[in-house]
Amino acid sequence: MKISEIATIIGVDFNQEDFEITGINTLKSASKTELSFVSNSKYINDIKDSKARAIIVDANTKEFVPENSIALVVESPYWEMAKLSKYFAPSIEDETLPEPKIGEGSKVSPKAEIAKGATIGENCTIMAHVYIGANVTIGDNTTLHPSVCIYRDCKVGSDCIIHANTTIGSDGFGFATSKLGEHKKIYQNGNVVIEDSVEIGSSTAIDRAAFGTTLIKKGVRIDNLVQVGHNCEIGEYSVLVSQAGIAGSTKMGRNVVMGGQSAIAGHLEIAAFTTMAARSGVTKSIKESGLTFAGFPLMEHRLWLKLQAKLAKLVK
């Protein structure tokens, strides 16, 4: 879109030379042809290093916009970004793409549906009622069980197994809220990348990123009924047990273990080789590697056991 069109949509006066904007992205990831935004003062330090051609800001943050960028000043940057995200969302399916490619030795059920632009590797098994969206890439020797759904632009590696009814790349739970309590959808324009040798149980949901990628690294094991929020990163060989949930933009190191019904809040960092017992609730980043935690509020597992012992004595 032209920057003049964008300015009109969000109600900003723009009288400078017009130019093209190719997409919306975060301050850190935006290129010289992209638009970004500042929704929280904690991101002020990221503004000065951003390469974004234009940045949506409010009156309090416009002074931090670098010379190479244009400041678009609005009352609520997050709301206006949500409004614009619709214009940069790709179509769900694209009939102009080439016919799907299926590698040698792959078996695809006649009841499966493969959209244009998709690529399936060699020796894959695609079972009944699987849906593979536009521009999806599936590696070699991967098995998709019945009713697996993979939305457009997502990537699944080689030697993966995805069990029935799991959805890869559905929209992340993202929306802006106005002062009047109205909600506006933020179109999730990123994707999901699943690396090699990953197994995912049935009825699990892995949300696509708002911008960029939700990443499941190699060797991960995910149980049934697990929720992975948008823009998360799950480290190599991590294990997520049934009904675990991870809120958006959380990054986990390698070999993290989440017990059943444990949960992690958003925008946190979890150190490698961390273990969380069943029903743990994580609200702060874990920086030290190799520890085991339990409970809510979260505490080291040995302390939690002592606390449970003392509580048991109190009720006798």
UniProtKB/TrEMBL annotation:
The gene is lpxD. SUPFAM superfamilies: Trimeric LpxA-like enzymes. It catalyses: a UDP-3-O-[(3R)-3-hydroxyacyl]-alpha-D-glucosamine + a (3R)-hydroxyacyl-[ACP] = a UDP-2-N,3-O-bis[(3R)-3-hydroxyacyl]-alpha-D-glucosamine + holo-[ACP] + H(+). It is an enzyme of class 2 (transferase). This is UDP-3-O-acylglucosamine N-acyltransferase. Pfam families: Hexapep (PF00132), LpxD (PF04613). GO terms for cellular component: membrane. One of its GO terms (biological process) is lipid A biosynthetic process. The lineage of its organism: Bacteria, Pseudomonadati, Campylobacterota, Epsilonproteobacteria, Campylobacterales. CDD domains: LbH_LpxD (cd03352). One of its GO terms (molecular function) is UDP-3-O-[(3R)-3-hydroxyacyl]-glucosamine N-acyltransferase activity. Its EC number is 2.3.1.191. It comes from the Bacteria. Homotrimer. The active site is at H230 (proton acceptor). Pathway: Bacterial outer membrane biogenesis; LPS lipid A biosynthesis. Residues 18-86 form the UDP-3-O-[3-hydroxymyristoyl] glucosamine N-acyltransferase non-repeat region domain. NCBIfam families: lipid_A_lpxD (TIGR01853), PRK00892.1 (NF002060).
